[in-house]
Write a structure and sequence with these properties.
227 residues, alpha/beta, Rossmann fold, 8 helices, 30% helix, binds S-adenosylmethionine
């Protein structure tokens, strides 16, 4: 097994993935957005060999770190693709298949002029609803209290979701960032929502295209986590 067996190459960001070529579509699917170096998802893939796990991440170095972990663990059920999350959920992922979607410590873009870069908003909630199966859950955690409340409000205003209890996350399953933040004594805010009903399998084309540029060149608050 090599990293090329783990990384799903995306040639066309609006063409649905041929998931049947990657794994048995009858298996349960879990997806992590912004999976970083993949600690959490690789641990789950090792724990649940009968399920499939897909990381979505836009930084090349992190996609490769994820893949190296999966190779070391010989995890044939762990996959990752380098793409902007909104494209992945709007176009690429299979409709109504994911049992769980994880978004842990997404970039909070604290400055007002950068709020448009935030992941959570109407477009992502629609794309997420397309990907979750009925009753499937979104698990969310952040260290950023203001962004936490913004995300709570997004879901509260959307009748396609119902709030539910977040999963327990003991230290053994913390992501790289959760480990870093909790190690500094920072508070972590967690929540979960489940999908009610089903959206159409395909959505109208995105009107506002997300910023597809990997953000590897810019100053990041998470510089300490770089390779
Ligand atoms: C703060 S890090 C958290 C990484 C990981 N979830 C953790 O908790 O350790 C945010 C990650 O999300 C990725 N990311 C941010 N926005 C994204 C987007 N729109 N699509 C895909 N990946 C994204 C970043 O490249 C980065 O690796």
């Amino acid at each position: 097994m090599t990293i090329d067996d783990v990384i799903i190459r995306v040639d066309d960001p609006v063409k649905p993935l041929d998931c049947a070529a990657l794994y048995d579509p009858a298996r349960t699917l879990e997806v992590e957005v912004g999976c970083g170096k993949g600690r959490f998802l690789n641990l789950r893939a090792a724990q649940f060999p009968q399920r499939e796990f897909l990381g979505v991440e836009r930084m090349k170095s992190r996609v490769e770190s994820f893949a190296r972990k999966a190779v070391r663990g010989n995890l044939a059920n762990a996959h990752v693709c380098r793409i902007e999350a909104l494209y992945a959920f709007h176009y690429l992922l299979p409709a109504h298949h994911a049992e769980k979607v994880y978004v842990f410590f997404p970039d909070p873009w604290p400055k007002r002029k950068h709020h448009s870069h935030r992941l959570f908003g109407e477009a992502f909630l629609s794309a997420l609803h397309r990907v979750l199966r009925e009753g499937g859950k979104l698990e969310f955690a952040t260290d950023h209290e203001e962004y936490f409340h913004v995300v709570e409000e997004c879901f509260a205003n959307d009748a396609r979701y119902r709030r539910t209890e977040p999963m327990p996350r003991p230290p053994e399953v913390w992501t790289e960032f959760e480990t870093l933040f909790r190690g500094k004594g920072m508070e972590v805010f967690s929540a979960a929502w489940e999908a009610i009903g089903q959206s159409p399998d395909t959505l109208p084309p995105l009107q506002v295209m997300p910023d597809d540029e990997p953000r590897e060149g810019i100053e990041r608050r998470d510089k300490a986590m770089e390779d």
